Fold this sequence. Notes:
The complex is a heterodimer.
Chain A: H1 3-13, E1 40-46, H2 50-53, H3 57-68, E2 72-78, H4 82-91, E3 109-113, H5 120-129, E4 145-149, E5 165-167, H6 175-188, H7 192-200, E6 205-206, E7 211-216, E8 219-225, E9 234-235, E10 263-266, E11 268-269, H8 279-283, E12 288-289, H9 292-306, E13 310-314, H10 324-336, E14 341-343, H11 351-360, E15 367-373, H12 377-382, H13 389-401, E16 406-413, H14 420-434, E17 440-447, H15 464-477, E18 483-487, H16 490-500, H17 506-515, H18 529-539, H19 543-547, E19 562-563, H20 568-579, H21 597-601
Parallel strand pairs in A: 1-2, 1-3, 3-4, 4-5, 9-19, 10-13, 13-14, 15-16, 16-17, 17-18
Antiparallel strand pairs in A: 5-6, 7-8, 11-12
Helix pairs in contact in A: 5-17, 6-7, 9-10, 14-15, 17-18
Chain B: E1 2-9, H1 18-32, E2 48-50, E3 59-68, H2 75-85, E4 92-98, H3 105-108, E5 111-119, H4 126-138, E6 143-146, E7 154-157, E8 162-170, E9 176-184, H5 193-203, E10 215-224, E11 227-229
Parallel strand pairs in B: 3-10
Antiparallel strand pairs in B: 1-3, 1-4, 2-3, 5-9, 5-10, 6-7, 8-9, 10-11
Amino acid sequence: MKRQEIIKTLEEILPEVSKPTRYLGNELNAVHKDFDKQNLTFALAFPDRYEVGMSHLGIKILYHLLNQQEGVVAERVYAPWLDLEKKMRELQLPLFSLESKTPVAEFDIIGFTLQYEMSYTNIINMLDLAGLPLESANRNSDDPLVIAGGPCTVNPEPIVDFFDVVVIGEAEDLAEDLVAEYLAHQKSGGDRKELLRSLAKLPGVYVPSFYEADYQAGSFKDIRAQDDNCSAKITKRVVEDLNAAYYPTQMIVPYMEIVHDRIPLEIARGCTRGCRFCQAGMIYRPVRERSQARLEQLAERSIKETGYEELSLVSLSSSDYSQIELLVEQLVSDCADLKVGISLPSLRTDTFSLNLADQVQQVRKSSLTFAPEAGTQRLRDVINKGVTEEDLLTTAQAAYDSGWQRIKLYFMIGLPTETEADLAGMVDLAKKVAAIGKWKVKVSTSIFVPKPHTPFQWSSFVGLAEIEEKLSYLKKNLRGKGLSYDWHEPDLSLLEAAFARGDRRLNQVLKRAWQLGAKFDSWLEHFNFDLWKQAFEESGLDLADYVYRDFDLEAKLPWEHLEVGVSRDYLLAEYRRALAEETTDDCRFAECNGCGVLTNIDIESCLVGDSNED
Amino acid sequence: MKIRVKLTKGEQVKFISHLDLLKVLSRAVRRAEIPIEFSQGYNPRPAIAAGPALAVGITSCSEYFDFELATEYPLAEFKADLGAELPAGIDLIAAQEIEISVKSLMAQINAARYELDLQLEIELKAAEVEEILADFLANSEVIITRKRRNKSDRQLDLRPLVFELQLLETAANSKQVLLEALIQTGSSGNLRPQELVRALQKSYPISEDFSLTDIKRTGLYIKEADKLLTPFEVISK
């Protein structure tokens, strides 16, 4: 179907679908270039619905960065919601880009972001809606190059069959090289294999088809480059200097409410706290902070160019930003006249952070969120979450005294070494917080999923039956005045665990689950665990074996050909310290822990305090 | 000072909800750096007040909004600055300063004019369509059932809410007609244009193939007895 036909068909069907503004593509600051006159066309695809995809910072950066280049156009694609998908399939309307309504199959490159494992079926579904051969092996030179990026690429193995190229690390650092290499290839007129070969030479580019995995006795054994032109290890891309790095200010302002409906101002990347369960804390190292001057400039411009009423200071741990007090003070005063609110997500549990929160929420003190993650000091030491019960209670008391009316407490269940005492500790802690005064305390638990490139990458996922027991204990005990409790679905976490640490054999399970009807799995109302069980059975693979297993400390892991910076030795040492209940200090304040990132990546960490001279 | 503005809501923005449209306007005001007044309280909101909401899908060339400013601001500049920041599909047609104490648009406006683009099930000449409309208007009552969210259905006589109904044009193939209706809107009696269409469909050969996107709002008025005034004509107390 041609672009004009797509436009015409959409005019007819959009009045009949929910939230049609999702599909218009004419939001403020959306970039509309003459599609047919570009040298390189790039579809940026987010495998979830508009409200979720539009909230994602990485895509915003890439979108505007690519569109800055002359001769290059980037357009957005999201997973159509089920009502539109149904009509698309009935009318044979192919997946289209939002801006020009061009069929996605006509783009040169389609980039998908891998944000969470349970969005993988949507990727397959979108490739299918685009009318493309699903697997890389079945696509040829006429088809778009299908690329993956995003955090889950630190172990992309369970979904590599569907991708031609995987970008490891921060894709914005690669964008220019990738465009140049692609344009050179276009000129030379080489075939697809040659294109892949030339791309594989770029640092951070992983071409899965050039690598082959071995299995022995039903287990993963090794993965190796098939020829000498490919490096044995692919090292992640990293933006060295956030101040010099491109950052968009003319961000798209949607015509409907999205999940994060505000300006995201990224103040820093990376985190040195070293929580042992946290993948982001490991894979986004080293810490790099943007200077206050640059942030003030970005804030001013983004407000002027979007008109947004709220600005959010984004990072993995905003209170860790070296000069956060100065920054917040300045931004609050800059924004006050414009009536632009400032939000500070991801605050630590201490009075310092509370003061910050008080400063930005001068008027409305609605809800404060703290994440002690575990119920006892012993378990918090195991996970290296450097927060004490005293910290939490003092902060909570101070929060109550300064007028906060609601507090949310986040915990994980199923952490390595967890016992009943830890759950009892969680209940106890929540009750102490509730007893502080007349306020609402909401406890949320998620289920711990061991992730690649973390000290817990070798740990087993806790058993489903055990989770049910833990949940029922918490449901029974987390009751009382002002106290409420909500929890995550265990089945979903179980699958997440399988795909987080899975190997290449899972590609067939994924495809089968999609064929059986799995999609939008992270939306509880659409998640159907039975389909997945059937897909595992039919593929002859044992789900239990993927999740309920302590990985062998000596064996090679399916993602160890991908270098994210922190070394295996460091992770292993941290794992052992965890089991010994020993904590490790934050290298920001103590000495270097030897995680290896600075040598493995060849980069400097950059804190605002250190680099004020620039 | 208070400024009353008349805007369009065109094809490009017809799916934006009423609340989201207010957000679009408040963000445009912030980009334009117009000194809008903010409400007091926990959650300061810009003082932009809308007229009667337009259902999602309907276009309009006649939407009204009152902007209250914190400081004096020349009208011409206001028009230019706001106009430059409005997205495609929202055009500023006119703006006028009004007295601070003027009643709100919601309290003032009580009549709305719509164009209805309808498909017929059979070919009809203009005279035949006019006959149908006269027949409809000759009814002393036309009862419709209004579905209400979380409430039981309600029976309603729409006839007194229809002030005018006429044929604007017929298409060459005679199977498509453009009607114009002036109907009551507001808190003391409100008729939705789609309800009028449904009532017509019930008794006359008008196709079921109809959606809100076939409706266009062309005017909002303050109706006093037989006088029809625009919101720009009632701007002092």
